[in-house]
Design goal:
The protein is α+β, with helices and mostly antiparallel strands. Helices cover 26% and strands 26% of the residues. The strands form four sheets. Strands 2, 3, 4, 11, 12, 15, 16, 18, 19 and 20 form a ten-stranded mixed β-sheet that branches.
Length: 401
């Protein structure tokens, strides 16, 4: 019985040590970064992500969940059923993005994509055009350097990275968006929820990132999470390469449905034209309210009840993004932004080698000190107290003076 109890205790200790290594280990190896200072877009030219008109638009959802990991990730339906349902709803790209699993690998008809992240702070990423799964994560909390390290690792194994549901538990804050680099897209619509403030924070800091809108459904019967947010992608086909190229160029727009599911596509983007300093947005469908938003999320102009609206860039305008409120939907267009006429800016966070190795050295020293203290404590526990023996004298009278 004693032997069994000893084995059980040792097994429990081993499990605790392994869990601690899994949870705390990444914190010991995570590097420290230096982040670029926020810098607004500048240049004499205007980059128009819709400059190349698309003959076809692919409707896409990049975030939905099927049943995976023996039901632990609470997807109600099999991934194959999720993909079939979205195709029946008129989607060309039914993105099934299970946690840490690429659904296309076992044969699901979807884009190669997965949702990275198993941390409690919901700082997750969508790996679009995923080649393999990145397993490292920081489970308990994440500093900005932790966030950057994860983004960089996910990006190395995928074509594009989208920051998922930034408003959930304040996963990505306005301050984070002013600093983080290396990602391509941000999920400004997640089911019925929107988060445009973090997008404006990124754009206002000189990060050319594009918007995506997704359902993030775990149950196809949940009407608040099915066919609510989607993307219109200006691509020749729904093939991986065409979709990735269009997303990378920003030739997409995000949609939030407010009305009936049958009326979701009554109003769509026709084109965005830029001629000198003039920008023109035109729509097909019902007359809508068209709003132009600029630096720091400030509304520059609104045109009510129209299918076409113009905006003239002033010297203070660094970017202008367009929001179209239709009777059934809200369209979020990617921004027209200033640049040098050659390449878009690409801010980059850099590894701070000195700070990183100083931190890791301190970790090693701390672990060494902890091991020494533990060893001394164990030795003191094992020590057997000495017994003092002697002759006891009885019946002896003491002299008094």
């Amino acid at each position: 019985m004693a032997t069994g109890s000893l084995i059980a205790r040792r097994t429990a200790k081993t499990a605790i040590v392994l869990a601690a290594l899994l949870i705390l280990g990444p914190y010991a190896v995570g590097p420290i970064y230096q982040f670029p200072d926020p810098t607004s877009f500048s240049g004499a030219e205007l980059y128009n992500p819709y400059a190349e008109p698309s003959a076809t638009w692919q409707r896409a959802n990049f975030h939905s969940h099927g049943r995976a990991w023996m039901g632990l990730t609470n997807g109600e339906q099999p991934s194959e059923e999720v993909a079939r349902r979205y195709r029946a709803l008129g989607y060309d790209v039914p993105g099934v993005s299970n946690y840490q699993r690429i659904a296309i690998n076992p044969g699901v008809s979807t884009l190669p994509i997965y949702e990275h992240g198993y941390n409690i702070t919901k700082q997750h990423q969508l790996a679009i055009g995923a080649h393999s799964v990145e397993w490292l994560d920081f489970m308990l909390w994440q500093s900005r350097s932790h966030q950057q390290y994860v983004i960089d690792r996910v990006r190395r194994k995928s074509d594009l990275v989208a920051l998922a549901h930034p408003a959930t538990r304040d996963a990505y804050t306005v301050d984070d968006m002013q600093a983080l680099t290396g990602y391509d897209l941000i999920e400004i619509v997640n089911g019925p929820f929107s988060a445009v403030d973090v997008w404006d924070a990124a754009l206002s800091s000189g990060h050319p990132v594009w918007a995506v809108a997704d359902d993030d459904t775990h149950d196809l019967e949940d009407q608040r999470r099915t066919a609510v947010g989607w993307n219109m992608v200006g691509a020749d086909s729904a093939d991986r390469r065409d979709i990735v190229d269009a997303l990378d160029a920003g030739r997409t727009y995000a949609v939030l449905r407010l009305g009936a599911i049958e009326a979701a596509n009554l109003t769509v983007l026709n084109r965005v034209e830029v001629n000198g300093a003039q920008m023109r947005v035109s729509l097909n469908g019902a007359a809508s309210n068209i709003t132009f938003v600029g630096q720091n999320g400030v509304v520059r102009k609104t045109v009510a009840g129209a299918n076409t609206a113009d905006y003239i860039f002033s010297d203070r305008d660094t970017y202008i993004r367009t929001v179209v409120e239709t009777p059934q939907t809200v369209l979020y267009l990617n921004p027209v932004l200033r640049y040098d006429g050659k390449t878009l800016p690409s801010p980059s966070a850099h590894l701070d080698a000195t700070a990183t190795w100083t931190f890791r050295r301190n970790i090693v020293l701390g672990l060494g000190l902890s091991a020494w203290v533990l060893s001394r404590w164990r030795q003191s526990r094992r020590a057997v107290p000495s017994t003092v023996t002697g002759t006891v004298l009885t019946g002896v009278k003491g002299n008094t003076v």
